[in-house]
Amino acid sequence: MSKLIQIVEDDPKSLKLIRDLLRVSGYTTIEATNGRQGVELASAQKPDLIFMDIQMPVMDGLEATKILKAGKETRDIPIVALTAYAMKEDEAKVLLAGCDGYMTKPINIKKFLKKTEDYLHGHTDHTLNEL
């Protein structure tokens, strides 16, 4: 059975790129365009992995992550932050919010797909900023 991956991303081009990469690799995707939708969708669908943009309207990715990590049914879903910001303090913020990892945009396709596999198999390293 295909793994279900949720993408929470407000930029249409980034969303399409990530969705296309994941689908071509055999994954099933679901999508939300803001943090509030992301929380609602994750709570209803229980994806195997979530890629969470940080800067979004309505509710940002950090707040959405905090809510999901506090939820009994969603706390164990790995959440990987996606952000164009690559400062050391930004990495600390996403990890403190409860994200299991951090990827910078633009993404490196090969590393993105490798890290996706790693996260789906429970291999987390909390340092993904080399992407």
What characteristics describe this protein?
131 residues; alpha/beta; Rossmann fold; 5 helices; five-stranded parallel β-sheet
Number of domains: 1
Q: Can you give the mean pLDDT? A: 88
User: Can you tell me the overall shape?
Assistant: globular
Strand content: 15-25%
Largest sheet: 5 strands, parallel
Radius of gyration: 13 Å
Could you tell me the CATH topology label.
Rossmann fold
Secondary-structure-derived class: alpha/beta
Describe the structure.
This protein is α/β, with parallel strands linked by helices and 131 residues long. It has a single domain, classed as Response regulator (Rossmann fold), CATH 3.40.50.2300. Helices cover 43% and strands 18% of the residues. The protein is built from 5 helices and 5 strands, in the order βαβαβαβαβα. The chain has helices spanning 12-24, 35-45, 61-70, 88-97, 109-120, and strands at 4-8, 28-32, 49-53, 79-83, 101-104. The chain has a 5-stranded parallel β-sheet, with helices on both faces. β3, α3 and β4 form a beta-alpha-beta unit. α2 packs parallel to α3 (61-70). The chain is globular. The protein starts with a strand and ends in an 11-residue tail after the last helix. The model is unreliable at 127-131 (pLDDT under 50).
Topology (elements, then pairings):
Layout: E1 4-8, H1 12-24, E2 28-32, H2 35-45, E3 49-53, H3 61-70, E4 79-83, H4 88-97, E5 101-104, H5 109-120
Parallel strand pairs: 1-2, 1-3, 3-4, 4-5
